[in-house]
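anyone seen this seq b4? input:
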Amino acid sequence: MPGSTTAASTLIDDAARRRSISFLNIAHGLDHFVLLIYPTVVIGLEAVYGRPYSELIVLSSTAFIAFGIFSLPAGWLADRWSRRNMMAAFYLGCGASMIAVALAPNLIVLSAAMFLLGVFAAIYHPVGMAMLIEAASAKGGTMGRTLAFNGVCGNLGVSLAAGVSAALAYWVSWRAAFYVPAFVLLATGIAYLWLTPDDRHSASKRQSKPAVQLTPKLMAMLFSLFLVIALSAGLVFNVLTIALPKIVDEGMVKGVPLVLVGSVATAVLLCGALAQLAIGRLVEWFAPHYLFALVTALGFIGNLWASYADGIPLMIALAIAIAAIYAQVTVNDMILARYTADAWRGRVYAVRYFTLFISTAVAVAMIAFLHNAGGFGLVLGANAAVAFLMFLATVALVVMIVNIEGRQTVMQPAE
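predicted toks r here
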């Protein structure tokens, strides 16, 4: 029966879509997890190598530089070749690179292996986000919740990185903190190849027009603001997540075991997961661009408060700042998706995440320099200034979107 065949085909497509979204959620968590192992275990490496934190933390910049730069070719390859195969390369490449980090006999080899980890970790955001939006759009009406839950998975990766890495380093060794997730990545990558179909045949069928078409001038202005927001958001995000274990160590629980430092940092980061779940629901009731302005304002307040606080108030301020920087990711992705076509979405997200993550290297240098000059009060004060710039750019973006959407409504033909 033709109807039965169509229904069966729809069920198969839905199952494949759900399976793909599940793997993308896992990948998002692992992507953030693997890049934040070193910033946690580096606290213990101070005693191993007899070098200060400000010197050792700079070694992670090789991974973060690669993480930004290689997002560009990753997005291009995904759009032109295969998004699914690029995601398989993410899983297997990150796993192999982490084994190389764990086997590194000295800091030079470790730095080179971290660079390779950054190359493969760069694949997820431009490729995975394009795949996720495509799958969420096909489901219909659930994009906000789908993106929010995916964001929560990324947040859990960040949150668990501090606690799990600290526990493995404390109870086993710092190398074990890389070995264990490496095997998880390799096993998941093999399962991904086995359970998801090749998509090379579908590249030419993707929609080439966005939901809202813009004039070249408006497009240039809109995406310029997105780039400013991406740069400032990347700097704020990376300063907070990279420095958090050390901020906790100095600002609240100084002198306690590394495993406790990681646990407190994890608790603070979990606030970001709660914020993303909340924002996923709120976008069903309020326009994403208004929520965008609200959460960036909260981010500025949280960072500014943290620069003056210590003890429990410091943890509360950091929780607000973390919640805001994660909540903005969901609404940012939703807004950007509305103005980009699926056929070149991988490349657009590649540019966005290139600017977002290339700021990581700046964040590492900023932490090292400012911490050495005036401690984390100075680091967080500078971060508050960047968060304020992000808020101003978001307000300008909201004004533009209100104007664009107003014109779009006027141009709609009467029913």
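Residues 5-10 have pLDDT under 50 and may be disordered. The radius of gyration is 21 Å. kinda curious what u guys think
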